[in-house]
From TrEMBL:
Any single biological process term in GO: cilium assembly
Tree of life domain: Eukaryota
Chief location of this protein within or outside the cell: cytoplasm
Subcellular localization, as worded in the UniProt entry: Cytoplasm, Cytoskeleton, Cilium basal body
Keywords of the record: Cell projection, Cilium biogenesis/degradation, Cytoplasm, Cytoskeleton
Gene Ontology CC terms, in alphabetical order: MKS complex
PROSITE patterns the record matches: C2_B9
Full protein name: MKS transition zone complex subunit 1
InterPro entries: C2_B9-type_dom
UniProt key word Secreted: no
Length: 456
């Protein structure tokens, strides 16, 4: 046999594309296979001496130029391209059968085709997303192989929840016709709105496999391929493109069983290098304009960090002091920057004094809760990046004092702590003889990027 390998995998394949679906092109090749075809395809060298070459007994072509036993068609079909069947040609030629505007449109197209020489195909035709067949097919198709199948509620809902929403775009500033939130949904509302709806469009590539000269009967129509495209660019093809696999086969039913083979190939045009370059230029120009727009939103007042400099932002809080002898405590603190390579703005205050706070008993100790926030910033610029030239880090000095009845102050203790150089949440306790807690929130990043928050 000339064709011994058939593709039995008729499952669907899913593709994703960001290109417009209107550029999709499929080539469909359909051919009738009979026993006489196999004999005709054998080379003459394989015929023995006692065999007669059957080529002399081949029937002569008919008046239309088609041989009934080896009809063959090939056509390239675009997305939602309408190819009429013989049944539709006979139907829409009768003006009384046209009931909708789409029917009248099809009638005009068929009349133009007849005037220009007829259809380019006899057996291969299509049903688009607007045809009645698309709706009826999705309502009538079965989910199982059971003879008496009863469609479930979910099947009915998914059949009714179809498409035609991708082109519905509300006008800007329009008033919503439905409420965004339904506070008291009814049972019917819940049943009708819990199904997820992904708008899609469907197209069927069909074939009329009736006997030659008797085309146009619904019972002879067979689906060659089903195409579905949703609004997210997902393309579902059933069956998959033939590619390197063997052709698909169809066996007709009835008294005269016939065997047909067909292939489906993706012949969509690839983008030319000039088009790709033009697309890249368009995207580059678009991104450049978007960058300029973002820069205009930021403005020119945004202060940039000096290249190669480390800018340090510190947001701290003097939390509490505990374990001291006297009441009415307050803390005097200041930050010392290393003399080399560190600097701070002239307006920056690197010192502060908390409010006076009375203590309260907490266990065996008396605790004064300050919750006094402070903030400062500093910059480090050092061109020497060798290991021996590691930078010194700022130090926070604290002095805990107390006030007596006569507004005289007493020094309760001193302490110092180096600002942590390792990011991560932690709690710093100043060793001032007793205990003084300080919480840090430090931003350590270039101002050209969004600063992130670190707690020390």
């Amino acid at each position: 046999m000339a064709e011994a390998i058939w593709s039995s995998d008729t499952g669907e394949a899913v593709y994703r594309s960001r290109d417009p679906v209107r550029n999709l092109r499929l080539r469909v090749h359909l051919q009738r296979i009979t026993s006489s075809n196999y004999l005709h395809c054998q080379p003459a060298a394989q015929l023995g001496k006692d065999l007669i070459d059957l080529a002399t007994f081949r029937p002569h072509p008919t008046a239309s130029g088609h041989r009934p036993e080896e009809e063959e068609e090939e056509v390239v079909i675009g997305w939602q391209e309408k190819l009429f069947s013989q049944f539709e040609v006979d139907l829409y030629q009768n003006e009384a059968a046209c009931q909708s505007p789409l029917d009248h449109q099809y009638r005009q197209e068929i009349l133009k085709l007849e005037d220009s020489g007829g259809r380019k195909t006899r057996r291969i035709f299509t049903y688009t997303d607007s045809d009645r067949y698309t709706n009826l097919e999705e309502h009538c198709q079965k989910m199982t192989t059971a003879a008496s199948e009863m469609p479930s509620f979910l099947v009915e809902r998914m059949a009714n929840v179809r498409r035609r929403r991708q082109d519905r775009r509300g006008t800007e500033g329009g008033i919503l016709k439905s409420r965004i939130v339904t506070w008291e949904p009814s049972e019917e509302f819940i049943r009708n709105n819990h199904v997820i709806n992904t708008p899609l469009q469907t197209m069927y590539i069909m074939a009329d496999l009736g006997p030659y000269g008797k085309l146009g009967y619904k019972k002879h129509e067979h689906v060659l391929c089903t195409l579905k495209v949703d609004s997210n660019g997902v393309i579902t093809v059933k069956p998959d493109f033939t590619g390197s696999k063997g052709p698909y086969r169809i066996e007709t039913e009835g008294e005269k069983q016939e065997l047909w083979k067909y292939t489906i190939d993706n012949v969509s045009s690839l983008a030319q290098p000039e088009e790709e370059e033009r697309e890249q230029r368009v995207f580059k120009d678009l991104y450049g304009r978007h960058k300029e727009y973002l820069n205009s939103l930021v403005g020119t007042d945004f202060e940039m960090t000096t290249p190669g400099a480390l800018r340090l932002f510190v947001n701290g809080e003097v939390v509490s002091a505990q374990g001291y002898e006297y009441d009415n405590l307050y803390v005097h603190f200041f930050v010392e920057l290393p003399t080399s390579n560190w600097s701070s703005p002239a307006f920056q205050q690197l010192s502060g004094i908390t409010q006076t706070c009375a203590t309260k008993s907490w266990g065996m100790d008396n605790v004064a809760y300050f919750s006094y926030p402070f903030t400062f910033e500093a910059s480090f610029l050092h061109e020497d990046e060798s290991v021996d030239a590691l930078p010194e880090w700022p130090v926070l000095y604290c002095e805990v004092l107390s006030l007596d009845f006569w507004q005289r102050y007493r020094v309760e203790g001193y302490g110092a702590v180096v600002l942590p150089a390792t990011p991560g949440p932690s709690w710093s306790q100043v060793p001032s003889g007793r205990g003084c807690g300080v919480c840090w929130t430090v931003w350590r990043d270039s101002a050209s990027r969004v600063p992130f928050k670190m707690c020390w």
